[in-house]
Design a protein that fits this description.
279 residues, mainly alpha, 14 helices, 0% strand, globular
């Protein structure tokens, strides 16, 4: 029988740019989560405050006796506050196992032995979380603005409060980015996603409990820089141009968050390691 030449032949197929490798991770991770009914149910539940606010906007626009429900910039701030709990649950459900599961399966060696850098790997995982966190914070907030215009039949409120568009966007990005980076860093510390979820819950609730205890003892809310979520709340109030709820200066709250983010990035840099291809 004939023997064909098995020598080297140059690959003639299409090559995807290496800078897009993160998109494969993001797309695959998002599809995996959307196949889980429990997660989809959580996303649907996270939109329940949107429908409540939509009914409020409808009543304010169509019922004279409900004029006290008229929209204000503070209403949108309160709406984002109401989404905090869903941001927490989505971050835990979607983010706790993103790196922990790869470490448990020793998949990091496989990922980083490909033409994929650590930055691309982390950015791909980060994109998954950012997508779903913005889906329960930024997207419904923007739709509320659209619903207000629809029910009112004019653009008066939006034009008078045009700054809400960048303000909602900036705060939603700050909140989603902070939660995503922190839980990814925690996920890189363990191979057990449940333990990661416990660590994140401890960071959120224990720091808040410590702050509440100190506030009760000293009657001074300037201790809010200790709390992870209280710093976000303080920064959110400042971004919306509303009176801040705690005595902590906004720069101090921002600095506390920056410290947490820097520590998280350092943890990710040290824990996400593998065999990288150097070209």
């Amino acid at each position: 029988m004939p023997i064909y030449d098995q020598g080297y032949r140059r690959y003639r197929g299409l090559r995807a740019p290496r800078v897009r490798a993160w998109a494969v991770i993001a797309r695959t991770g998002a599809r995996t989560l959307l196949r889980r009914r429990l997660f989809v149910s959580l996303l649907v539940l996270a939109w329940s405050p949107f429908f409540v606010r939509a009914v409020q906007l409808y009543a304010a626009a169509n019922l004279p006796q409900a004029s006290f429900l008229a929209p204000t910039p503070a209403m949108f701030r309160r709406f984002l506050d109401s989404q905090d709990i869903f941001v927490f649950f989505v971050a835990v459900y979607a983010g706790a196992g993103l790196i922990a599961n790869d470490r448990r399966a020793n998949a990091l060696q496989i990922y980083l032995s490909k033409p994929l850098t650590r930055t691309g790997y982390v950015f791909g995982k980060l994109s998954i979380l950012m997508l779903f966190l913005l889906l329960v914070s930024w997207v419904p907030s923007m739709l509320l603005l659209a619903v207000q215009v629809l029910f009112a039949g004019n653009f008066t409120f939006v034009i008078e409060n045009l700054y809400l568009l960048p303000v909602i966007t900036v705060f939603s990005l700050v909140q989603a980015c902070t939660a995503s980076i922190v839980i990814l860093a925690l996920s890189s510390l363990s191979k057990n996603s449940r333990f990661v979820g416990i660590l994140y819950a401890a960071l959120v609730f224990m720091t808040r409990a410590v702050f509440n205890t100190l506030w009760a003892i000293t009657s001074d809310s300037s201790w809010s820089w200790i709390g992870f979520t209280t710093n976000l709340a303080q920064i959110g109030d400042a971004i919306f141009g509303l009176p801040t709820r705690y005595a902590t200066p906004v720069p101090v709250a921002g600095a506390a968050l920056v410290v947490v983010l820097v520590l998280s990035v350092v943890v990710l840099a040290r824990r996400v390691r593998g065999v990288e291809v150097v070209s």
